[in-house]
Amino acid sequence: MTAPAGTPARDTDVERVVGGYLDHLAVERGLAANTIASYRRDLRRYAQYLAAAGVRGLGEVAESDVAGFLAALRAGDDGHPPLSATSAARAVVAVRGLHRFALLDGLVPGDVAAEVRPPAPARRLPKAVPVEAVVALIEAAGSVEGPRGLRDRALLEVLYGTGARISEAVGLAVDDLDRGSSVVRLAGKGGKERIVPVGSYALRAVEDYLVRARPALAAAGTTAARGGVRGGRLFLNARGGPLSRQSAWAILRSAAERTADASLAEHVSPHTLRHSFATHLLDGGADVRVVQELLGHASVTTTQVYTLVTVDKLREVYAGSHPRALS
């Protein structure tokens, strides 16, 4: 479509629009640096794909070009291996965001990417470990001598006792845990807070850590770390600073390697105790919507994946127990 006389044509050069979109994501939407880097990588590949197809301006792109890019991602080429459904979906989300941005900025007359759907990733069941394995993990974490063992045990007890994400646990302030009411305030995704009950095992482990270990760790750090006021982190590293997510994950992995089950280290992940928390609750008869609230899921659909795990367990018990279950 030709612009009216006297109206300057908008510059829809793909590379320039990509640059403007990335600036928008960084400045106006405040996305994390790692997220921006992923978008930049995906959109650079999209721009190269369009250039190879002879497309120079975003206004020239057709829906078939976007669909073709998705197909190319899944197929791979000489310079790129085929992408999984999850990775390809991430790239398509970036491309759709680019076209939506261009439409809202008046650079193009329509959104040709709106109807191109990202591929659905294969549904992966969360991996939980048996209760005995959780106990072994916690015992192994607490077997380390000195303040570190008390801290590590308290951390794993909190993770399993509340279903917190590792990032939520390491972000806890001392005052987020109300030992009188036996609840903890967790700051989840998007800054959403939720109140979760804390069991007696976790409370005792935290009490031991606060009395016998945290003061020694805090002594090596800053005034903020030493304080019992809100803002003083609950879990500290050996230098008295806040324990990082990476360090917490290393604690879990190290504990798994010290258990009698040599294969356990192959199955643990940052979400292992969270998944086990949810699965064991459902196995014990908890309502899925209660588990949803405890996990901080926005939709019960996200939580229902755990019911598939428990159905598998029911099927296993049935097959081993009912006299006419097996032919």
How is this structure best described in words?
This protein starts with 13 loop residues before the first helix and ends in a 6-residue tail after the last helix. The chain is built from 16 helices and three strands. The longest helix is centred in the first third of the chain and has 20 residues. The chain has a three-stranded antiparallel sheet, with no helix packed on it. Helix 3 packs antiparallel against helix 4 and helix 13 crosses helix 16. Strand 1 and strand 2 form a beta hairpin. It has 327 residues and is mainly alpha-helical. It folds into two domains: 91 residues, DNA polymerase, domain 1; 140 residues, hpI Integrase, Chain A, CATH 1.10.443.
Write the layout of secondary structure elements.
Elements: H1 14-27, H2 33-52, H3 63-75, H4 85-104, H5 131-142, H6 147-162, H7 166-170, E1 177-178, E2 183-187, E3 193-197, H8 200-212, H9 214-218, H10 223-226, H11 245-258, H12 264-267, H13 272-283, H14 288-295, H15 300-303, H16 305-321
Antiparallel strand pairs: 1-2, 2-3
